[in-house]
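In response to reviewer comment 3 from the previous cycle, which asked for concrete evidence that the modeling workflow produces usable outputs, we include below a single protein chain processed end to end. The sequence was submitted unchanged, and the resulting structure tokens are shown without manual editing.
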Amino acid sequence: MGMVLVTGGSRGIGRACCAAFAKAGWDVAFCYARDEAGAAETRRLIEACGAGALALRCDVRSEAQVNEMFSALPGLSALVNNAGVSLFSQLQDTALAQWREVFAVNCEGAFLCTRAAVPLFLRRGGGAIVNISSVWGEEGASCEAAYSASKAALIGFTKAAAKELAPSGIRVNCVSCGIVDTQMNVRLTEAEKQAFLQDVPLGRQGTPEEVAACALFLARHPYITGEVLRVNGGLYV
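The workflow returned the following structure tokens.
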């Protein structure tokens, strides 16, 4: 199948993507910023599937670190831009530095990784990129303006890159996640979670594994590009 790189692979959706690709026969490289213990667990899961595993410490906000990481991945055939951060803050309380931090990880990180991956894909005659976005990037969320705007930008980036890179055999797609059971939502109380779920027709949170299955599908499908695949339980249709 080749090798995939998953950014933000030490936990949550990123770890689930690593496991899904490994089970499907891919070798898996993943990066993480700080979580050494989480990275070790992800590596163990990949190797338990019989796949090759490569853990790389990389801050996707850093152009130099991203370029160094991709120099170690000459055989890359797919990229999952998953690394992300959230910010729950009212507009008037959001500092410019906080706004820029969210964009630096969620949007600029995906740009830097995509830009670094393209020459590798061109040399091998094609490749696949999957960006992990959010329902809030499609409809916006109160008190999450920075996060919503960054995820909306990622969707726009997906569509533009898909058009530009398709003639070179490089497909670019996006998974738009709804409310998923990850550490990003630990700030929510049980009552707040239930209030959110009242708006979800399927009545429950999604799982990281369900998102990962869609990322794998998009990475493998040879005739889908520029797609935004919604995995949100019917929250936004």
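The CA atoms of residues 33 and 59 lie 5 Å apart. We consider this sufficient to address the reviewer's concern, and the full set will be provided in the supplementary archive.
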